[in-house]
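Dear Dr. L.,

I hope this message finds you well. Following up on our conversation about the binding site, I have prepared a predicted three-dimensional model of the protein together with adenosine-5'-diphosphate. For your records, I am including the exact sequence and ligand specification that went into the calculation, followed by the structure tokens. Please feel free to forward this to your student if that is useful.
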Amino acid sequence: MEKICVAVRVRPSVSSESFNGAYWNVEDNRISLHRLHGTPISGLSYTFDHVFDESSTNARVYELLTKDIIHAAVDGFNGTAFAYGQTSSGKTFTMNGSETDAGIINRAVKDVFAKIQMISDREFLIRVSYMEIYNEEINDLFSVENQKLQIHESLERGIFVSGLREEIVNNAEQVLKLIELGEVNRHFGETNMNVRSSRSHTIFRMVIESKGKDTNSSGDSSSVDAIRVSVLNLVDLAGSERIAKTGADGVRLKEGKHINKSLMVLGNVINKLSEGAKQRGHIPYRDSKLTRILQPALGGNAKTSIICTIAPEEVHIEETKGTLQFASRAKRITNCAQVNEILTDAALLKRQKLEIEDLRKKLQGSHAEVLEQEILKLRNDMLKYELEREKLATELEEERKSHKERDQCIREQQMKIDNLSNLVSFSDLDRNSNQGQGSARQSLKEECSESSVHQGDAFSTPCFKADPKAFVVKRSNYSTLPDYSPLPDTFSNVADEDTWQKMNKGYMADLDSLQMTPARKVQSFPSNDITPACSNDNFKKEVQQLKRQLEIATEDKNELERKHAEQIMLNHQLMDEISKLQQEAKLIQEIPQRLSESVGNCKDVYEDILSIVQSFVSDGESSTAKLLSSTSEIGKSLFTTLETHFSMAMDDRSSSTGNNFLIQEQCKVLYEKLNSTITSLVSSETPSSENEEARAQLCSCGNKGCTQGGETACWKEELSNELNTIKERYYGLEKELDHNNQLLVVSKERYDSLEREFRLLKEDRDLLHQMVSDSSQKLSLVTDQKENVLKDLNTEVRRRKNLEEEIKQFSVAFASRQRSLASFHSDINSNCEKLRTQCLVSLPKSRGC
Ligand code: ADP
Ligand code: MG
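The resulting structure of the complex is given below.
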């Protein structure tokens, strides 16, 4: 365990403007704020591993702060050095340097190659990449077409940026040239504080692989096989900024917000890491791309150094305090760096070894420089193939993901359709169980009232009925997906003055208020032994095929969506109809009430008439009186029956139609009875002499001289008037009844049309069912085909590998045959030569003999 190495560097002052005369004083590794006359201000003194004053050069910063990390990287330790500080405080100057004073990146690159030169017992393979994070998007600085790259994580490679161009290099000049080219693509902008302000975070990365040279044949093979892989990150952060000071607006403002946001996340990560292992809890690495990429370097397996640059001017005191507080917290972080030795094929060096050896043999005899160039070219080609393959694999993975999502979407559609069909069949069931027009209307009403109480919006949005389930599925699906958690929206205004102020006072956002990042997703690509040459085409073909299938499936999905929308429209229409019916039902409900009121009126009139008639009958024992009282009783009982029926009808609407009929009947009876009573009264009653006077007084015509016959006529007239009134009322009631009956007929018609629409909907639903099952079949077919393709692909790859192996063996055998043939030839030649010389020697001898 070792602490992060933290240093502070003070940039030379650019203005002598002073307000209170306060200044930053540097003494050894301490920096403190002093008042005008030199007295230190308490609480504003900080100690770090190093504090570099205004006169310090990049060379000194490199020597003291970064050199060790660079050397350790060559030895197999991960290393990261980054510059943090406000805009125009000297971060880029420190990392990139100037023409006269080379920066840390330049020195590190040269140092790495110088160190490698000195290590004779190991061979190295170095590759470099250069990226920037601009507005939370990762862009490749080596290749402008590689924009908006994604971060992935695999067991073999850990966290990596997919599609990022890597270049294998074998000397420092080559790297510096590449960096120079990359710098052109970097985002700069002009602000009030810096004419060339870096608007993005840049990460220059060197991956150093090395393995022991197998010089001694008796050596331990495992130690030779082990390959060290280390990653060196050199990071130049964009500066935190206060919008008012930088005068940023428009594009600059948006950049500023993103810069501040990611620096705030970095601050939060540092804050959490500085809390010590036990209290740490969740570290929000995934909340910004910067922290996600730097995850291994922050509190992980890396040697890390941070150089915090500050501006000495009094006007920047607040920002400087913020930077120093950030540095103080960073000082408390411990990392656990170790040499990264691996035995698997993850190391590029290992994967490329055989091929390189092959090429070396082929080129033996060529000039060494040409050989090296060829090897480098081959290596880069191979790396490109690998990266290409990796990109394709990632694309394939994404295709699979979208395939899954599409599946999910179809399932949701299915659920919604099921839901809708449930609703339709629910209404069907209800309709079937109801008998007669009245009961159907009743059930509809009950359904409506029930829906308003229990199902809330079941009628208004039927698809929501099953949606809770759908949401759960969606949620769980989402939680497995993201590579980094989205930031809460409130972060978008992180660049406002208040937040900025808080940030620079060392304020850290409450991490619990941040959306927690989902659990780390370890994503691993399926192991793939495909050789680059043959795999590319196949992969491309497969991807294209999948894309085509995806298009077809998307069309299917769109069709389903269209149908679903139609279904929803129909549903809305139905709902309108239902609400109209509800209103009508309400009107119908009021009928018993109104009838009951009419009956009440009739009763009053009836009682009035009776009391008037009874007043003429003074003798309670007379037959007329008896008749009248019995009529009164009959009438009362009739009215009571009517009232009970109406109150029943109001309580239980199911018999409302029956009630109407009953009322009609009873009214008729009442009318007839009244008629007969009056007729009998008129015909049977013979007026007595003692009542004559009273009758004459009560006669409504008021004519005292009325004769008996005239009186009777008068009474008859009055009674017939009353009867007419009752008749009129009765006709009024009949009319009302007719009107209500018409309403009922219309409602029935509407109900019938609704029934027809329901039937149509049902047919549509069945059709949709059919389509969904068809597309599910298609999907399973596609999945099967895809699996078959993959299987074939793997078999083909294995076959090719075997073939290659055979060819190699054959070549080796052929070469040894050639060699033995050549040696055989040379033997024969030398033998011939010997024989010839022997012949030549023996011939003169024989001649001389
Ligand atoms: P930053 O990257 O932090 O926004 P720069 O590195 O661009 O700031 O520095 C702003 C200006 O200050 C540049 O012109 C740079 O040359 C100058 N500068 C910064 N630090 C130093 C230093 N230590 N010595 C000389 N000039 C410096
Ligand atoms: Mg800069």
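In brief: The longest strand covers residues 122-134.

With kind regards,
A. P.
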